[in-house]
Structures are given as structure tokens and as C-alpha cells.
Automatic annotation (TrEMBL):
Keywords, in A-Z order: S-adenosyl-L-methionine, Transferase
Domain of life where this protein originates: Eukaryota
Gene Ontology CC entries for this record: cytosol
All residue ranges annotated as the Methyltransferase domain in the record: 55-91, 116-233
GO MF annotation: an example: arsenite methyltransferase activity
Protein name: Arsenite methyltransferase
Pfam families: Methyltransf_31
Enzyme Commission identifier(s): 2.1.1.137
Class of the enzyme per the UniProt entry, highest EC level: transferase
PANTHER family documented for this protein: ARSENITE METHYLTRANSFERASE (PTHR43675:SF8)
Database matches in InterPro entries: Arsenite_MeTrfase-like, Methyltranfer_dom, SAM-dependent_MTases_sf
SUPFAM superfamilies, per database record: S-adenosyl-L-methionine-dependent methyltransferases
Listed GO biological process terms: arsonoacetate metabolic process; toxin metabolic process
Amino acid sequence: MMRWWPGKPQGLSSTATSPWAAAFSWPCHGASPLSSTQHPPRYYGCGLVIPECLSSCRILDLGSGSGRDCYLLSQLVGEQGHVTGIDMTEGQVWHRPGPPLHPPSSPPTSFSSSCQVEVAKKHIAYHMEKFGYRKPNVEFFHGYMEKLGDAGLSDESYDIVISNCVINLAPDKGAVLREAFRVLKPGGEMYFSDVYASQRLSETIQQHRVLWGECLGGALYWRDLYSIAEEVGFSPPCLVTASPITIGDKELEDIIGDCRFVSATFRLFKVPAGSWARPAQVIYNGGIVGHERELVFDANFTFKEGEVVDVDAEMAAILQSSRFAEKFLIRAGGAAALQGCCCKGAKEKIRDPFQLLERLTAPGAGGTCGPPGCC
């Protein structure tokens, strides 16, 4: 597994929208940014991964890099919460002309600079002083997200696991999800953004140096995420949002062919056995900071304070077993044939990020977070 950290994105980014294009846009489902106090200023990723209802939570960031997301989260969880960052990058690879010097099967080229984890650690005292904390609520480890046990991370020790555009760089994505599932508490959530492909990638694409460096060569076929999540034990993935990735280089377009890429955010839950197993009616009680009147949970469900919403068994089990439980009144009811839409009647739940992207960009869509008529 390797990770390229150029001074600015290479390859696709010079001619097209790269996976980093969404990094500075704030998603409609997230908390408000606190970037004015953040160090270091450099940022890479395909979408800020900051879910709701974070007070006092224990959070693990896979591929934390220089710690920017961790410091955002460390303020949101509060002094009673805790954030752990883990990253395997030995050295930051600064921008240089041309593509990376080695294919993915070779060790990355390291230029003279600090380990990302060490960079992150240098700013702990600064942020704790800015936040007014008496002791640090954030820590950083060097290690692999496929082997969290090697870093001393124990079973059922976190409420939330996040990741920002790094799982595509893992050769064994099943191992990443298995480790995330292991360290999550019952009812815990994995909330992450990444790059996905419209089909399984050819070996040519996977081994292409520029495409790998741009986080496209390791992209997972989106349907395989659902299969892996089921095998690991997670609830079916909840698709939150999707953003386009375009390619403007003719040579790269010829290599990719009819394959398409999308940046998408998903949330997975570790639903305990015996949780709610039938459709239900739920009422959002409000009270989540930043979402007091309305909670856009994902592309299929939006909950308005005091409003009765029919949900399918999947969503009922998630709400009943997760940190969101005390924010909802859950009662038996709802259409038995409900497919998972927040509006009246049965509608197909949207799971395909490319389908969601088409709906979001369709004329008259109005930038909604979910399918027309659903949110």
C-alpha cells in the first residue's frame, strides 16, 4: 500500500476535476467547519468526513495524514470525547514534475520531510490551548488500517470510525472494513468518503502510475462495497452524498474506457443482533447541534423535528441501536412493503452513487441531498 502526498494533486488535477475537488466544499449533512484554527493548512481528501451527534464520542480516523480532520473532530467531540488518528505514511512526497517514480507494487519514493504522524503530533499543544482543554483529547499512531491491532487498538473501543479518501489505497479493502468493525462498539458507525468506480477495474488501470497516484487506480467497484459490508457484518451501506470526478486527459480517457468514477460518502453501522427488525415510524426530537430542526441522515432519509416518518427495518435498527437513539421516538408501524423512502408510499431506496449523482445534477433538482420528492 502506498500513498502519494504531492504539493498539489498531479496528473488528473492539472486537466480535470480530481478526487480532491470536493475537499473544500462543505457537505449539507455535515457540521460547520472550524478551519480558522487548524494547522497545518495543507489538506487532501475527497470530502470532509464529519458526521453529526459527536459530543463525548470516541473517534478513529483511518489515514489521518497531518491530522487536520482529527483536530476538527477533537473540538466537536469536546473535552470528554477522544480522537485517534492512524497513518502509515513514512514521508510526505512533495510535488515534482511528472508522475510518481514507482508503480503501486514498488515502495513509494520518499523525499526529505517529516512523517505525517509526527507532523500531526507537533500541533497537539497548539490546538488544546486554542480549544481551552486541560489535557489532550487527541492522539496519533503510525500503523496500517488493515492491522489496527498492531497499533494497540482494542475491540469495541470506538463510537465512530472515519476515513477520508484512503481506503482506495488499501490492497485488501475487506481487511480495512473488518478491522473497523472490530474496533467499533455495538451500534457504532463507520462514516467515510472515497472514490468508487462504475465497474471492476482492469489490471491496466490498477497498475497505472498516474491513476493510482490520483486515487483512481485503487477505486472499489461500488457494488462490491455492499458485498464486503455484508460479509463483515455491517448493516447495508447508507449512501449519503456523491460528487463527480471527471477526466480531461485524452490518453487517460483511452486507458479508462467506459469506466466512470465518483467521490461518495457512505455510513455503515454495527447493528447488534436483536435490534429492531421491522418497519417503524420515527419522530426526530431535534436537539442535535447544527441540525436542531432537520437532520439529513442520508440520500434517502431526511428527518424534520416532530414529523412522523415511515422507515424500513434497516433504518429502524440503525436508529434504535446507535448514538442517535435518544434523539428519536421509535414506534411500531409503517407500511410492511416500505422500501426506505421518507415520503409517503413505497419507493426504491437509492444505493448507487452514480444514480444519485445523476439525480443531484439533473435540471430542476435544486441541489437536494436525496432523490426528488424524498427530502
